[in-house]
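Form 7-S
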Amino acid sequence: MSEPLVVISARLLAGLKPAVERGGFDVALAWELTDAERARARCLFHVGETRLTPEFLEGLPNLGLIAVVSAGYEGVDVPWCRARGIEVTYAGGVNADDVADHAMGLLLASSRDMHEHDRAIREGRWRMEDRMAPQPSLTGRKLGIVGLGYIGRAIAQRAEPFKLQVAWWGPRPKESPWPRAESLLALAQASDILMVACPGGPATEGLVSREVIEAVGPDGIIVNVARGSVIDEDALIAALKDGRLRRAALDVFQTEPTPAERWTDVPHTLLTPHRAGGTTEGVPNMVGLALENIRQFLAGRPVISPVP
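Output:
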């Protein structure tokens, strides 16, 4: 077979083609492949939220590795791939600190309405009497974390210096200094703040349901740095409009980019465009790990970070 080809499989990653080429690989874009290139394709350079269909993968007869550049890999059917001899790697934990920093930033800004106060000043609506309008303190509040993986743990570690009381829930018990709730609903009922940091994919779709949102309550805050699919977004919007939830701070959405008009009349929201892990350190580290996995695979050596 001719020289192996690395295929960038998602348009989101197209701008990284020069970086992959600098890694010493022959590179092509999935939406521009010729039949000859399909036969040469040995590795995919992929981002986890983009779904890879069996039809697409079956069209790459010599594919051996999917190197996911992100921590999430819900767009890849890992058992299907491995049953066909295709290994899957990911970047678990590489940008966990960056995502946790962003999550805490969302919480701090949202809990004190910093973004709304900024807007008030810029629009000439600063009234001196507003300084005395009380806002809840974070000190002593109960923080519930959905998912205690790399990101969940990093959030919990950051929350303790803010004197937040941390608890968590996930489907499997883990050794942890923080208590695990009996259920997600129990966690929501006991929390002033619900921080969502679990994996995406079919297993967690709609996990934060209307019932869970209402359990957080009219004085509560929900922060999501996981995947937009984890939260029932329609139920979240309805709860914010009706005053059944105090605040929401979101970095991820059901559809991305999320339509601007969807949020025009939704009060008390802080929105960022899926940038939690996109730091000057995190992105090169994730790309570097994916490229090293490709390098090891093509050399016939074990990959570094296979999906568990």
